[in-house]
Amino acid sequence: MTATVLLEYYSTPKTERKEPFDFSLEEFKAYHTDGYLKAKHAEGQFKNQKKVGLWKYNNLGGALYKTIDYSDSSNIHLVTFFNQDRKIKEELTKIEERNGSTSYYVLKRVVYYQELPDKIGEYLFVSKDGFCVLDKGKTVNLDENTPDNIIEEEVSLEGIKYYIWKDGKRVLYLEKKY
C-alpha cells in the first residue's frame, strides 16, 4: 500500500502538507510540487511508525541526491550523498527524531568526490574506494599518503583558509577574509 503526500514549496520557506497521513501504511512517497513541477521527493517504508530500510530522497529536479539506510535496531544509519548519479560521500550518522524535529550527528565520513569551496556543485575525484576524513572513534591524519583533491578547511578569527592535497603535499587553495 502506498501513501502520497504533496509538499508545496513557495517563495518563503513555509512547507504545507496535505493531510491526512496514515502512519499505519507500510510504504511512503512524497512529491515536490510548485504548480508546474511535480517530482518525487522521498520514498521509503515505515514499520511501527518508524522509517526502516532504504529511503531515497530526490531534489526538485527529480534527481537522487541522498539515501538513508535506516537500521531497525539502532538510531545510527548510513547516509549516502549523490550528485549527477555519482556517489559523493557516505556518512555514518546518528539520527534522532523528537517532538517533530530531527537532529543529525555525523560519526564517520568517507568522501569519494570533494566539492570545491568556491564552486558549488563542482567536484574533484578523490578515490573510487573512498577516503575517511572524519572518524569520531579515532584520529584521521592527513599526510603524504593523503589522496589528491582532499580539501581541508582552517578557520581563524581572520577568516577561512582552504588547503588542497596534491602529490602528498598540502597547498593553499583559497583564502576568505572576514
From TrEMBL:
Cited SUPFAM superfamilies: Histone H3 K4-specific methyltransferase SET7/9 N-terminal domain
Protein name stated in the entry: MORN repeat protein
Organism for this UniProt entry: Echinicola jeungdonensis
